[in-house]
Amino acid sequence: MRFSKQRELIKNIVQGTNSHPTAYWIFNKAKKKISNISLGTVYRNLNKLNKDGIIDIFYDNNIARYDWNTVSHDHLKCNKCGKIIDVKMHTKELQKEVWKQYKFEADNFEITVSGICNNH
Amino acid sequence: MRFSKQRELIKNIVQGTNSHPTAYWIFNKAKKKISNISLGTVYRNLNKLNKDGIIDIFYDNNIARYDWNTVSHDHLKCNKCGKIIDVKMHTKELQKEVWKQYKFEADNFEITVSGICNNH
DNA sequence: ACTAATAATAGTAACCATTACTATTTAAAT
DNA sequence: ATTTAAATAGTAATGGTTACTATTATTAGT
Ligand SMILES: [Mn+2]
Ligand SMILES: [Mn+2]
Ligand SMILES: [Zn+2]
Ligand SMILES: [Zn+2]
Which CATH number fits domain A74-115: 3.30.1490, 3.10.20, 3.30.70, 3.30.160? Predict the structure, then answer.
């Protein structure tokens, strides 16, 4: 993969926020630095960065959000302010439970907790 | 809400499968009984049934799936055969954990476990 | 430095799941 | 039976994402 300033910018934008941004948010941020950058370029590079393990993608209902944090973790989503907070849940117990009851070999847990955050 | 044979059919289709079908799958099934049923009618009624608490909606990556099972539960998704299995995870521990560590008042856990099911 | 090869881009069209619109049909209350 | 408005079929529009294509930019070899 060869260098491009567009990809470098997109990577830095994702790595510079904890807000789990959407592609469109990243696109608007990027336009401030490269005014004619294309939305297609944003999507293409987000997917490329994800395939190379540089960033993570997850879905919030039906839209993609991008995450600089590539180590397996979970999210708390506040119903009042929309904030998405990183957490690491202990899933060892759940893994055992699933194996015991269903003979299901779990290799990934995706947990989204909705509720009310500590700002309210 | 007044009766319609379309809505009745859609409800029965969702309640007659454990497969967590998509709207399009339901649409095709419905066409066998009402050949000129419209995809818009399927979506409209699925949303209406959901609002009335008759069925559940959840998102599998970026597409909606419908579920007859309206009591809070979780899903095991097999990476080999795609099957989605209903389970009830114990989230009381997680709830405590989230409150202790983040002062986050959890009211719903959405857990999707991916792995390999007992058919393989 | 110059050239050649080709990866990456901007701009635009296409795609797919879902929702919105509208004229017509239908359930059901009177 | 008549009336009223909810529901429908058919179609257009929307929003997020991917695909296409002519042009531009990076990089390896000379
Ligand atoms: Mn995160
Ligand atoms: Mn289910
Ligand atoms: Zn909040
Ligand atoms: Zn399986």
Answer: 3.30.1490
A54 Cβ within 7 A of any nucleic strand D atom = no
Q: Considering only alpha carbons, which residue of chain B is nearest residue A95?
A: B113
- Structural element, H or E, at residue A23: helix A23-31
Query: Residue ranges per domain, chain B?
Result: 5-67, 74-115
**Record: contact A93-B97, CB cut-off 8 A:** no
Confidence (pTM): 0.93
For A53-91, write each residue's pLDDT tens digit: 999 999 999 999 999 999 999 999 999 999 999 999 999
Q: CA-CA distance, A60 to A46, in Å (whole number)?
A: 16
Specify whether the CB–CB gap between B55 and B8 falls below 8 A.
Answer: no
CATH dotted code for B5-67:
1.10.10.10
